[in-house]
Amino acid sequence: MTAQVSRAFLIAALFTTAFSAHAAPCVEPPPDPTNTYDAQHTYDKLVRNYPFIRIASVDLPDGVTKVADQTYVQYGTRCLKLDMYLPATAQAGKAVPVVVFVHGGGWRSGFRSEFVPMAVRLAQRGYAAVTISYRLSGEATYPAAIHDTRAAVRWVREHANQYHLDPQRIVLAGGSAGGQIASLAGVTGHLNQFDPGAANSAVPSSVQAIVNIDGLSDFTSPAARVNEDDPKKNPSAAGMWFGGRYAEKSALWKEASPIQYVRPGMPPILFIDSAQPRFAVGRDDMVARMTDVGAVGRIVLLPDSPHSFWLFDPWVQPTVDATVAFLNEQFQSR
């Protein structure tokens, strides 16, 4: 580890100590036995139809440094944490772009460890990666997860110098519900209504690009509501997040749809999607609208793939390759 990184880690430790001295102590919520959206449980569901899949490795490769359990925002005694995966170039003192990952799980389950396979492979390609935890719908309904995601972006930007991150090249990415959260937090970077922390900080929580992996773009479309507003589900995943069905909370369902915020100058978006079309509802219409206003929207489809493909080989590497190619293109054009 270089002297620069050692100093950075020391600064972070001092910051954490000072933060803890002035804030209420963190109290971890008890484990939720119903939260089973992880690689092993998903593998058990998929392996019969995809016998060739393998759970992607989460091992830390040579040249990649992990900085774990950093508190990025605190509400009372509730602390939300993130992990960072730093490439060798950052450790050598070069400012690198950073991808902030938002995990999936239907807004009510999941763990930040979901994106470790992608994070370490991105770090091997010269990108820093951050995986975040956020408040799930059983703890706090919409828009809490958006607030948390924007807070995580601000924390990354505030700590950019310490960890040699480029504050002008921050990306939000996520899968499934996390893809929708990342998209919404990213396309509303100009709107403080989705960022309560903006009132007390001069540091923006906007991002320069978005990667939406199999996440919805339009909750209001009939195709989305077939699944997300299914009356047989009491409640559905989306209904639980919004605190009501579409008929009861239609304004929120519309407000939470990234497609509503297409505008000139918005961040470019890469959509990476499975062969399961229900999870990409609204994507094509959103890309068409983006094209009309001069924004960049790209689509990469992985044939014969299940939802949650980013947890498994052989799909992790193509997903990383597509992400790196897209981001390199966007950042080199600036």
Automatic annotation (TrEMBL):
Residues 82-274 form the BD-FAE-like domain. One of its GO terms (molecular function) is hydrolase activity. InterPro entries: AB_hydrolase_fold (IPR029058), BD-FAE-like_dom (IPR049492), GDXG_lipolytic_enzyme (IPR050300). Keywords: Hydrolase, Signal. The keyword Ribonucleoprotein does not apply. It holds the Pfam family BD-FAE. Residues 1-23 form the signal peptide. It comes from the Bacteria. This is Alpha/beta hydrolase. It comes from Massilia horti.
